[in-house]
UniProtKB/TrEMBL annotation:
Keyword check for Membrane: yes
Protein name as it appears in the record: Os01g0736500 protein
Keywords: Membrane, Transmembrane, Transmembrane helix
Transmembrane segments: 69-96
Boundaries of every Late embryogenesis abundant protein LEA-2 subgroup domain copy: 134-233
């Protein structure tokens, strides 16, 4: 088909020609995905369907039994570990906790008191044997082993005697009593004694210092070394006409 050209006159008298009209473009064919893309999509869909079917497939009884056994054993192990940990913690804070031993001076007596006339410088000479009754209590669940101990006695700032106790052991939650004996140093106590006091009686104030070192071992796990120190103030009623024993005893002990 032919298109007719049309001419128009412009404002300046020149003829303008319109270009011939172009035909409209024909519609392009539809674009479809390539064949290989379709195949990959189909394979992916099939794989997903296969996985879903496999997941929905029932497990065998053997598999379920093994799984239950593993879960049960794991739960028992965790529970047992927690219970054992709690028990150990409670025992460590209560039963197995190392407690301080208790040292007590029960009484002090003078035995074999003998007063004689001395020299012009010391008119009265006194000889005596001092006997101290000491108790050591162990409140722990394990025994307490202690080394050789020493007790010093003082009168008027002077040492009048030193007593030693052998090493030993105190059983669990028990008490042991020890008797320490020493000879009083007459030359240090005689200057403070006169004949009248010796006959009619007189109170004398003594002080003592005791130190004991030992250790507590609980099942080989809890170990503790202990040092027990005790200071005592003792009042003795001394008389040649009556039994000589402690009138009062006040002690203060510390454990480190």
């Amino acid at each position: 088909a032919c298109f007719r050209a049309m001419a128009t006159v412009g404002p300046y008298g020149e003829a303008e020609k319109n270009e011939p009209a172009r035909p409209l473009a024909l519609p392009s064919p539809s674009v479809h995905p390539a064949a290989n893309d379709d195949e990959e999509a189909a394979r992916a869909a099939a794989a997903a369907a296969g996985d879903t079917a496999a997941n929905k497939r029932p497990r065998s009884p053997q598999y379920l039994r093994r799984r239950r056994c593993v879960i049960w054993c794991g739960g028992c192990c965790v529970t047992s570990a927690v219970v054992v940990g709690i028990v150990i913690l409670v025992l460590a804070l209560t039963v197995f906790k190392v407690k301080d031993p208790e040292l007590t001076m029960n009484r002090v007596t003078l035995e074999g008191l003998d007063g004689d006339l001395g020299t012009s410088r010391h008119p009265v000479s006194v000889n005596a044997t001092l006997n101290a009754d000491v108790s050591l209590r162990n409140p722990n669940v394990a025994s307490f082993r202690f080394d050789r101990s020493e007790t010093d006695f003082y009168y008027a700032g002077e040492t009048v005697g030193v007593a030693y106790a052998p090493e030993g052991e105190v059983g669990a939650d028990s008490t042991v009593r020890m008797n320490v004996t020493l000879d009083v140093l007459a030359d240090r106590i005689s200057p403070n004694v006169n004949a009248t006091d010796l006959i009619f009686g007189q109170g004398y104030n003594l002080t003592s210092y005791t130190e004991i070192s030992g250790r507590v071992n609980v099942l080989g796990i809890y170990k503790r070394n202990l040092d027990i120190k005790m200071n005592c103030s003792i009042t003795l009623e001394v008389s040649a006409l009556s039994t000589v024993q402690s009138k009062s005893t006040n002690c203060v002990a510390s454990v480190s």
